[in-house]
Design brief:
This protein has 5 helices and 11 strands; from the N terminus they run H-E-E-E-E-E-H-E-H-E-H-E-E-E-E-H. The chain is globular. The relative contact order is 0.21. The N terminus is likely disordered.
Length: 193
C-alpha cells in the first residue's frame, strides 16, 4: 500500500513532443522520420543513418565560406559540442549547402580549426540536390541564389533528432537564448532515451 501511495506521488518525467504529423496505422501512431541518407564526411567516410543508430543528434546546414549566419551557428553548435562532448548518446551533423566548394578536405580543415572530434561531429558533403531535399525534412530552407553576395539563403535552424529519426526540437541557430533553451531540450531527450 505504501508503494502504491509513493508511486502515485512520483513526478512524471518531461518528454519532448514528436514534431511531425502522425497517422494511425493498426491502432498505433506512426510519425514521419528523417529519410535514409548517405553523404561523405570530413574523414572521407560514408555517413548514413546507421552512423547515428541508437543516438540522438543535432543537425544543421551551413557552408564554410558563409560570412553571415554560419559563423554564429557554428559557434552555437560548438557550445553544444562542448557541453555534451562526453555524452555517449548525442552526435552532431553539419551538412554543407555548397558541395561544389566545400570539398572533403575543406570540411576536414574546418573541423580541425574548431578542434572537434570527427567521431562526435560529422561535417558532410554530397549531391547538392540530395542535401537540399533533406534540408526540407529537417525544417530548413536552403536556396541557391546567385543574386545574393554569398550565393545562398538558408534558415539557420538547429534540429534535434531522436534515435527513431523523429524531430523532437529545433531552434534558430543564431539566437543564443534559444540555443540555451535548446540545450535543455537536448538534456530532456537524453534522459528520455
Amino acid at each position: 500500500m505504501i508503494a502504491t501511495i509513493l508511486s502515485g506521488c512520483k513526478q512524471e518525467e518531461k518528454r519532448l513532443p514528436i514534431l511531425s504529423n502522425g497517422k494511425e496505422v493498426d491502432g498505433k501512431m506512426v510519425y514521419s522520420q528523417i529519410p535514409d541518407f548517405s553523404f561523405i564526411g570530413q574523414d572521407s567516410n560514408r555517413v548514413t543513418n546507421a552512423t547515428f543508430a541508437g543516438k540522438a543528434y543535432v543537425a544543421d546546414f551551413f557552408f564554410t565560406s558563409c560570412p553571415t549566419i554560419c559563423p554564429i551557428m557554428t559557434r552555437n553548435m560548438l557550445k553544444i559540442y562542448e557541453r555534451f562532448q562526453d555524452s555517449t548518446g548525442l552526435l552532431l551533423l553539419s551538412h554543407t549547402i555548397d558541395p561544389r566548394r566545400d570539398s572533403v578536405g575543406r570540411l576536414a580543415q574546418y573541423a580541425r580549426n574548431l578542434g572537434v572530434r570527427s567521431d562526435k561531429w560529422f561535417f558532410v558533403t554530397g549531391n547538392k540536390n540530395e542535401i537540399y531535399e533533406i534540408a526540407d525534412d529537417y525544417f530548413n530552407v536552403v536556396i541557391e541564389d546567385p543574386t545574393l553576395p554569398t550565393g545562398f539563403d538558408h534558415s539557420g535552424r538547429l534540429v534535434l533528432v531522436d534515435p527513431q529519426r523523429h524531430i523532437r526540437a529545433y531552434c534558430q541557430g543564431t539566437d543564443s537564448v534559444a540555443v540555451r533553451k535548446f540545450m535543455v531540450d537536448i538534456e530532456t531527450l537524453l534522459h528520455e532515451i
